Amino acid sequence: MSISGAIRRMLEAGLTIEQALVAAEAFEAGAVPQQPALSKRQERNKRYYERRKASENRLNSDAQDDSDGESAPLSPEGSSPTPPSPKPQSSIPPSPPKGGSSPAEIDQVIGAFSAMARQAGLSVPKAITASRRRSLLLRIEEHGLPVVLDAIDRIGRSRFCRGENDRGWRADLDFLCQSKSFVSILEGKYDDRPSAGGGPSSRSPPSFSSTAKPGQSREEYLAAERRRSERSFQ
């Protein structure tokens, strides 16, 4: 029954309007709305979706717990985290830098050439430029210091290199620096040829053994000549 119908009946029963209104308000306050009844199919669907939602909530909760455990691993009490393993180092040593890796050997070659040039009457180098030093370093790296010193001795013993040729040409430090002429020196292209009588074709310049001081080694002799050459540059 609606509220308006209830009020009408109370008035017909002899109640005043105020009494009917008070009774209607009390009836309205105590009335509880009832939900419509569900069919069996709707009940089954409702229970299905409720179980599905509960299962999804449980799975999401377990996944969150696993994620929290992996993101913050705990170390044993009193121990520090294990540091990363260092990268293995290569057993192959690094190659020496090119260009200027052996300045002492270059100075030794310049000193030996200067000493030979004075004895053989050749031009003594005065300006040791960066280009000359680079070229000498290449010859040392390609053939080794002993071979370069042997080439200097071959120049000093060669008549052709000392100017005994049809042009009067004489060898200088640049002749030793050049790759092509250096190989020709080593291969004996400028060595003296024996004379027709089988003896030496000419007198060779003084050798190390004839000019060194008694008991002086070849290294000491070359070092002294290098210092003498450096003084002449100044």
What would the keywords be for this entry?
rod-shaped, 0% strand, 234 residues
Q: What order do the helices and strands come in, and which of them pair?
A:
Elements lengths: L2 H10 L4 H14 L9 H32 L31 H18 L9 H14 L1 H13 L15 H5 L1 H8 L21 H4 L6 H16 L1
Q: Summarize the helix and strand pattern as letters.
A: HHHHHHHHHH
Overall form: rod-shaped
Q: Using only CA atoms, what is the Rg?
A: 55 Å
Estimate the strand proportion.
Answer: under 5%
Q: Kindly state the number of beta strands.
A: 0
What is the helix content?
A: 55-70%
The oligomerization state is single chain
- What gap, in angstroms, lies between the N and C termini? 131 Å
Structural class: mainly alpha
Overview of this structure, please?
It is rod-shaped, with a radius of gyration of 55 Å. Helix 1 packs antiparallel against helix 2 (17-30), helix 4 packs across helix 5 and helix 4 packs across helix 10 (218-233). The protein has helices at 3-12, 17-30, 40-71, 103-120, 130-143, 145-157, 173-177, 179-186, 208-211, 218-233. The chain has 10 helices and no strands. The model is unreliable at 93-101 and 199-205 (pLDDT under 50). It has 234 residues and is an all-alpha fold. Among the domains are: 1-28, no CATH class; 103-233, no CATH class.
Provide a short characterization of the protein structure.
The chain is an all-alpha fold and 234 residues long. The chain contains ten helices and no strands.
